[in-house]
Amino acid sequence: xxxxxxxxxxxxxxxxxxxxxxxxxxxxxxxxxxxxxxxxxxxxxxxxxxxxxxxxxxxxxxxxxxxxxxxxxxxxxxxxxxxxxxxxxxxxxxxxxxxxxxxxxxxxxxxxxxxxxxxxxxxxxxxxxxxxxxxxxxxxxxxxxxxxxxxxxxxxxxxxxxxxxxxxxxxxxxxxxxxxxxxxxxxxxxxxxxxxxxxxxxxxxxxxxxxxxxxxxxxxxxxxxxxxxxxxxxxxxxxxxxxxxxxxxxxxxxxxxxxxxxxxxxxxxxxxxxxxxxxxxxxxxxxxxxxxxxxxxxxxxxxxxxxxxxxxxxxxxxxxxxxxxxxxxxxxxxxxxxxxxxxxxxxxxxxxxxxxxxxxxxxxxxxxxxxxxxxxxxxxxxxxxxxxxxxxxxxxxxxxxxxxxxxxxxxxxxxxxxxxxxxxxxxxxxxxxxxxxxxxxxxxxxxxxxxxxxxxxxxxxxxxxxxxxxxxxxxxxxxxxxxxxxxxxxxxxxxxxxxxxxxxxxxxxxxxxxxxxxxxxxxxxxxxxxxxxxxxxxxxxxxxxxxxxxxxxxxxxxxxxxxxxx
Amino acid sequence: xxxxxxxxxxxxxxxxxxxxxxxxxxxxxxxxxxxxxxxxxxxxxxxxxxxxxxxxxxxxxxxxxxxxxxxxxxxxxxxxxxxxxxxxxxxxxxxxxxxxxxxxxxxxxxxxxxxxxxxxxxxxxxxxxxxxxxxxxxxxxxxxxxxxxxxxxxxxxxxxxxxxxxxxxxxxxxxxxxxxxxxxxxxxxxxxxxxxxxxxxxxx
Lengths: 566, 204
Known about the structure:
Largest sheet of chain A: 6 strands, mixed
Strand content of chain B: under 5%
Radius of gyration of chain B: 19 Å
Helix content of chain B: 40-55%
Oligomer: heterodimer
Strand content of chain A: 15-25%
Number of helices of chain A: 12
Helix content of chain A: 10-25%
Shape of chain B: globular
Structural class of chain A: alpha+beta
Number of strands of chain A: 18
Shape of chain A: globular
Largest interface: A-B, 76 and 73 residues
Strand order of the largest sheet of chain A: 4-2-1-8-18-17
Largest sheet of chain B: none
Order of helices and strands of chain A: EHEHHHHHHEHEEEEEHEEEEHEEEHEEEH
Number of domains of chain B: 1
Radius of gyration of chain A: 24 Å
């Protein structure tokens, strides 16, 4: 009998259009692939949807947000640092998109559903990893070894940074490699002072540099330089910061090979038992509820770490009763985030004749200094500080005593200078930190959702305690007064929105989900390149590494297709 | 976010001022300033405050942030903002606490001056509010377990609520952003160590 095999309509399907999906779309289309990009949310038109230039007095609640509606619909999302009265539309509705946690083990799952995903609201800080990070698990005997090293990723960091545009200062540190930086943003007077005093005291062991940020300081790749208006998390009509909407999706569109389908919720992937490949991507239309399936030669899962794990766990088949590509049992495990809320702030006398003009979308950075050259007795790995110095404004003085002309004067004058350091600490992979399918809870489209069981370990808590001590030391060295270590306690897991690790890369199919090319051991035409792929967490903001891994995996996938292996 | 969270965020984000900074440079093009006195005939009706409470709130806000060489709370139409927040943002319990507080204010005004708060002279109004403001400051300085009565949180004191709303409503108003705070027009550049006071825009 003659069986007619219909050629798939697409060479590649990319699930998700956030920071990694956008990169997959750009690379695959530029490599000649007819590519379908699916996103669960609505399309974004900058002219209609960006609100960074809406003045505060035009907001109904003057920046305080529609409290009642937010408490009813977004009780989790509102905890994100980039959630505000206007940017809330870029975060999901918690009622339609529920999940659960054990009692007394909260986890913040910050999620975005629109074309562009969280790349619209990300923090834009970009730091390379080094072999201090890629060799860490092997050195410490923790979890599994990364299947790649810095030399594997270095050219892809270059490739990504050249396109996105990264402003920063080269420092020549082997554990925080430099890139092809655009001119750095300026420091404030007090930041420069603290940098100089730190250098004098710590002699290069602890340095302060300006943040490395995916915001343009000069025109780049057809995008305009930043005009320092401030609220990047509401969009950027001049496309000065990198996002899928501002850069990668337009590049993919320009090839003529991109098909973008918004309102497309992926409910699962279909595994062909005969070919041992992914044969289809199942989609529920977010508006109509209609179901359909798309086929392609390769699939890139870029839905974000936990969402990608959820799609795999929801894709059960005869071969994979516990979830697709899960023969190792590692899908959904090893959730990592970065621990924060440790640090300190201090006040500085002087510079009363100086102030800050404009809103810098960036802060300072203190690269990791623990366990770099010497071994710390209390913990392994380390953390970096972000923060900055400025003069207090009216918001921080609203509760001061006084009424009348004197109070008004104090309120509206620039207040004293202060500097804050906030740590971002590495989290170790631990397979007990795990997301599983909830037995009964489903989202508004009937798709089973996640039960997330995740907590800090002793190492993270020791790192968090150390942040308070060393931040105070930095301020002390700089001559600050009234130094106040953080009293917040550790952040809630997930709260840094750097969740990762739920389909890790490795060297052994028995203990990892993906090989060294982000390719699923169990289904060779499936690539997972969002945060799910991470084998350890580093302490650097992770998006740059996700992007570099994505670009690298795309080129590998296309080479393999050309060799006839896919 | 709620207000306490907003403030914590703010303090934590020292040096990250872009997070709470409003943004418009499209306003560069507007170049207009409409000086509007609040509560003229034709103003929208208040919803949380009756006519007397509304006049009381407007007077109280102006005493907290009076007109000087820059606009005051009345110029910034802070009363309208407070009414909207009490109607749409605060809980029924918080709203009741503020309304009860306004009644208490009149009672203390009558005891002290023999007149309702709005009928007092400006120095009289100022004098009474200074006393109440000091009571709130004292409450803030008292350890939580030693604070008398309710509310337990000084932020929930009726006067603390009204003062916060006055400051927030004033500082986020167009007149204050432009004329008092010099936040507009936006500079369109960044200087981390600029001369202060900042020279007003257009001043050569």
